[in-house]
Amino acid sequence: MGTNSNMNRWALIVVLALGWSTGAQAFLAPQPRVVVSSSPTSTVTSSSTTVSTSSSSTTVLHMAMSRKARRQMETETRKKVTRDKKFRDAVTTDDDDDDKDGKSKPFLESNVADSNAAGEEMERRMLSRPDVSNLYVDEETGMEIIQQGRFVMDVITRQAIQLNPNPQLRMAQMFPGIPREVRDEHRFDWSSCEVPAMIDSLKAACSVKDELPTAPSVTNKGIDFVLANRDLLGHRMSKTMGKLMMRAAWLEEKDQMRSYRNLMQNFLTIENYISAPFRQIIMDVELEIGPNFGNLDLEKYVGSEQYQRSAAYLVLKGMQCTWEKKLRDAEVIENTVQTESNYYKILATGDPRRYHPEPEVIWEMKECARVCAMSIEMVKTFVGNEKMFNDLPVELRFLEAALSIQGGVALRKFIDEDFCPKEEITPEALREGMRRLLAQLDSMYLDPYADIRNVVDKLQRAMVIGTDDARSPYDPYLNDLSSESPGYFQTYTFNHGPMSLVRFLDTKKFDPEKQNNDKEEDENPFTSFFQDFGGNSKPKNKIQASPFDDSGEYIVPKGRSLGRPHNMNWLESLDEMEDAEDGVFAQVPPG
Fold it and tell me: Which residue in 7, 162, 386, 509 has the most C-beta neighbors within 10 A?
């Protein structure tokens, strides 16, 4: 059990480390300077405070909930009409809803009152939240619950972020830059730099007298360094440092492991500090657009300032990308006959919450098509309004124009011969600006911004083909999975409990008897699993315990182990480091 809980805790850290944490003119607007003391233990103070909350709703940490408590929670949930159910009712119409002349009613035309009520309810809920997110224990269930705050937290001061009252400076907070001379001082030479030298430079900039400041303090020089190289660091640097930390743990180089861990923590703190105003502005605009979904009179509820309109475009475009992805997934699910060969492909397609016995998410093709159509129409209306769209940052206007072009060759020709000459910007500056936009989107919560983030990532990858920017020193660390990679570490298998999801999938995929019974099961492969987990009914096909050897070790199916060793336990060194330093994960009970 100890090994299992340790792995679970550090598996989450691995995901965080490996996952999703030239001057482009539009991104080099004046920025309020940040004052940082040179003391290693000092904290940052600024007029533009910053980051934290990344979930869009209250998140429950399911530690050890009894079945009785779980059933009680499910009963209470069913008594409430959820937002998803209201939204589904609003966008779903039947044939008898059409007018007598045969024309369909406008989308949400009869739901203006409901929209106003939804807005008032959303405002009431927001005002009832604390200023910033906090953790508390539910008295009835004993569970630890994260309560979403009204404002993004400044990760350094631990207080709610304060945006500059000046609209122009608030725009500079949203898309931060630094003076040209400071940028030139710290900027990497991308044509020749390598990862070890980049990490050394980052550490030197973030340190005071060769020591990193005590978390969560950061240095002013470190902030300038990260801003100067924001587009060259970002998620690729955090992934690389995460892999190097894991490699050091595997090789039992504990000092090096701690060094990478501390530098990565400092770097992510700076990243969060820089991106917090962006997230706060996006969150504020969401509160205006959410209750007005379907209302094409955008000027009535979208602010007139440039930073508000920039955020509104990103929210609307993100919504469009999300629902286009949902619609594509729904088409695959509904139009594909499930067979043994495509079982896992379909299983991994779409929102996994649809497998719940009583799903409360919109995932059927008809409903997704309606929401997607309205999302596209709202973006089209916004872009067609010259007053709202034409003075947005060049990167946002390029994003809208580029997504209508088919093919990488045509895209690069459009950049060189049309867009850049018209906007009086160099292709190099445009590519940097798109990478900086990607860095800001990386800071957003996955739902619903993962899809627009991926779109921007694919776009900037297509832009650099055939240019000097195509070179990446990160490739040997992130794309080479062989044992010769400088970022390689040996993975291993470990024991899983009889009722774990891993054991369930092992049995489903590798147990011949289970495979022979595929056709007799429900279309929903998780129905019996969720019912048994919730204690509501007995499953149709009871999961059989997989074999153990004489020592009590779980025998992992060969198809999944792929020759990897079992229970090497080097992840425990990461666990020991976290416990010794009383980190955040040390506060989470095992399991």
Answer: 7
Query: Given the structure tokens 């289970």, which residue do they identify?
Result: 514
102 vs 179: which has the higher pLDDT: 179
Q: How far apart (Å, rounded) are the C-alpha atoms in residues 362 and 140?
A: 30
Amino acid present at 29: A
The band of 239, judged by pLDDT with boundaries at 50, 70 and 90, is very high
Q: What is the pLDDT of residues 125-172, one digit of tens each?
A: 767 777 787 777 888 888 888 777 788 988 888 888 999 999 999 999
Tokens found for residue 5:
């809980």
Angle ∠(525,527,529) on CA atoms, nearest 5: 90
Residue 440 burial (10 A CB sphere; 0-12, 13-18, 19+): buried
Report CA Rg, the chain.
26
> Taking the mean position of all CA atoms in its chain, how far away is CA 569?
29
Asked if 440 and 273 count as a contact pair (C-beta separation under 8 A), the reply is no
Question: How far is C-alpha 132 from the chain's CA centre?
Answer: 19
CB of 6 closer than 8 Å to CB of 571 = yes
Closest CA to 225 of 182, 193, 194: 182
pLDDT classification of 118: cutoffs 50, 70, 90: low
CB 269 within 8 A of CB 218: yes
Greatest extent of the chain over all pairs of C-alpha atoms, in Å: 79
Q: Which long-range contacts (CB under 8 A, 24 or more apart) does 508-512 make?
A: 509/344, 509/557, 509/559, 509/560, 510/557, 510/559, 510/560, 511/544, 511/546
3-state secondary structure 99-154: CCCCCCCCCCHHHHHHHHHHHHHHHHHHHHCCCCCEEEECCCCCCEEEECCCCCEC
Q: Which of 489, 21, 573, 476 is nearest to 243 (CA)?
A: 489
Q: How confident is the model at residue 47 (pLDDT cuts 50, 70, 90)?
A: very low
Residues 123, 120: Cα–Cα separation, whole Å = 5
Coil, helix or strand for 513? helix
The DSSP secondary-structure symbol of 547 reads: P
Q: Could you tell me how many residues make up the chain?
A: 591
Are 419 and 398 a contacting pair, CB within 8 Å? Answer: yes
Compute the distance between CA of residue 585 and CA of residue 590 in angstroms, rounded to an integer. 9
126 and 287 Cβ atoms separated by less than 8 Å: yes
CB-neighbour burial class of residue 103 (10 A; exposed 0-12, middle 13-18, buried 19+): exposed
Distance separating the N- and C-terminal Cα atoms of the chain:
9
Ordered strands of the 134-137 beta sheet: 59-61, 144-147, 134-137
Q: What element of type H or E holds 59?
A: strand 59-61
How many H-runs (helices) and E-runs (strands) does the chain carry? 25, 5
**Choice among 81-85, 114-118, 264-268, 391-395 with the minimum mean pLDDT:** 81-85
pTM: 0.73
